[in-house]
Amino acid sequence: MILEPAPRVDFNDTATAFSGRTDKALKWEYQLFRMMNHPVLTNVLTTMASLSIKMHLPVKWLIKKTVYEQFCGGETLEETKKVLAELEKFGISAIIDYGVEGKESEAEFERTKNELIHILQFAAGKKNIPFISCKVTGLTSFALLEKLNTGSALSAAEQTEKEALYTRMFAIAQAAADNGVGLFVDAEESWIQDAIDNLTFELMRTFNKQKAVVYSTPQMYRHDRLAFCQRSLADAQSHGYILGLKPVRGAYMDKERKRATELGYTDPIQPNKAATDRDYNLAIQLCLDNMHNVAVCAATHNEDSSMQLATTMQERGIPANHPHFWFSQLYGMSDQITYNLAKGGFNVAKYLPYGPVKDVIPYLIRRAQENKSVSGQMSRELSLIHKEIKRRGL
Ligand SMILES: Cc1cc2nc3c(=O)[nH]c(=O)nc-3n(C[C@H](O)[C@H](O)[C@H](O)COP(=O)(O)OP(=O)(O)OC[C@H]3O[C@@H](n4cnc5c(N)ncnc54)[C@H](O)[C@@H]3O)c2cc1C
Predict the structure, then answer these.
(1) Which of 56, 62, 286, 290 has the fewest CB atoms within 10 Å of its CB?
(2) Residue 167 CA, ligand 1 centroid: distance in Å
(3) Does the beta carbon of 187 lie inside 6 Å of ligand 1?
(4) Is any ligand 1 atom within 6 A of the Cβ of residue 37?
(5) Would residue 53 count as lying in a domain?
(6) 283 falls within a domain
(7) In the chain, how many H helices and how many E strands?
(8) 348 Cβ below 6 A of ligand 1
(9) 371 lines ligand 1 (CB under 6 A)
(10) Cα 75 to Cα 184: distance, rounded to the nearest angstrom
(11) Is 241 helix (H, G, I), strand (E, B) or coil?
(12) Ligand 1, residues 248, 297, 329: which to mutate, most atoms within 8 A of Cβ?
């Protein structure tokens, strides 16, 4: 592989960001984000969408033609090929995510494991699918993870359930290693996260000896995660493996705060956004300073954090396509970061979920809520599209 020196990038370049869109596609996207920009409308529509799906009303086509196509790759793995090919034209990779959530039976957990192994086989040898992601809650019950998190003794049935989870996760990580694809273990609620982290450490100690196969996810909106990143690095150094880290800010803030208040324990979330941003950037800095022991994927839509990583790589003479540095944004969002990084030769991937429409509704609702207007302002996506529409004179 030829390693390219990191160049300067410009996230204000909307011409590059939207170079894959025709005028018609751009106008359609503008209408879609304009609709999501209305907080009341978004709340009503998301509630109606979940209810309609539960009541088996024929709204699938409507969801599929709107938010689904904006944020998902297709209903099946086969269907994602079109999006994958389109991204590849611009030098953009994909992190495939089987977007099905909220399953609760052993048979469903087995099906999810088999599907994840199937994706890893599909990704084998494809340079544009360097990673897949998985949620541990798709592979065991939430109740078991909560129990594991408390550290209290397990019943015989729970012990069997735990062994089944470990067997599934080791089989998935083995398939990842065998097929030369990385495995991101997503972060979830704090009251199950220790259970997820303990499992992820075991996987990294086993599979990351030569290179980072398994990546853990610190949520930097938690005030204890910078210390966690430092402990993770120490664990990698003492056990002789490459630490895989995918720092995120965190997606469950309101839920975390509400539970902490209701149950009367200390809020695990940072006091404010500035503290989250500071720790996010310090976590990236830690990875840069220990780049021979850590492989990092900066999973963020934050321009400052992405720019900090790109600029420091450039200042330190780290090649743009160094295998220890990746950037990632969700499919359908923040193309000004993704496309401009790709143009500069950086390793960048879209997080691309797929699955039946009814199963990805929770994911779509999170995306719609994220794109609502805050204090009457245009959402970040909407203002970017608006800027490009004006630039094209449409
Ligand atoms: C590729 C990818 C993978 C992801 N995987 C996961 C995952 O595994 N688990 C997960 O939880 N999330 C995940 N996320 C979502 C992520 O956690 C964020 O919710 C989302 O990316 C928005 O944060 P941002 O870094 O893009 O930046 P910004 O838009 O700059 O930051 C918004 C974030 O800042 C934090 N924040 C906002 N207000 C405050 C406040 N008052 N006090 C403290 N913190 C505040 C919140 O985390 C909020 O989401 C992923 C995102 C991407 C792009």
Answers:
(1) 56
(2) 30
(3) yes
(4) no
(5) no
(6) yes
(7) 17, 8
(8) no
(9) no
(10) 21
(11) coil
(12) 248
Q: Around Cβ 87, how many Cβ atoms within 10 Å?
A: 24
Name the residue with the closest Cα to ligand 1, atom 21: 300
Counting atoms of ligand 1 from 1, which one is nearest the CA of 269?
Answer: 43
Separation CA 157–CA 151 (nearest Å)? 16
Q: CB of 204 closer than 6 A to ligand 1?
A: no
In CATH, what number is assigned to the domain containing residue 135?
A: 3.20.20.220
Rounded to the nearest whole angstrom, what is the distance from the C-alpha of residue 219 to the centroid of ligand 1? 8
Cβ-count burial of 345 within 10 angstroms (0-12 exposed, 13-18 middle, 19+ buried)? middle
67 domain-assigned:
no
Sequence-separated (6 or more) residues with CB below 8 Å from residue 31: none
Nearest Cα residue to atom 9 of ligand 1: 187
User: Quick one: which atom of ligand 1 is closest to the CA of 305?
Assistant: 25
Place of tokens 């991204």: 87
Domain that holds residue 324: 76-359
* pTM, two decimal places: 0.94
327 bridge partner residues: 298, 348
In a domain, 288, yes or no: yes
- How many structural domains compose the chain? 1
Cβ(209) – ligand 1 distance below 6 Å? no
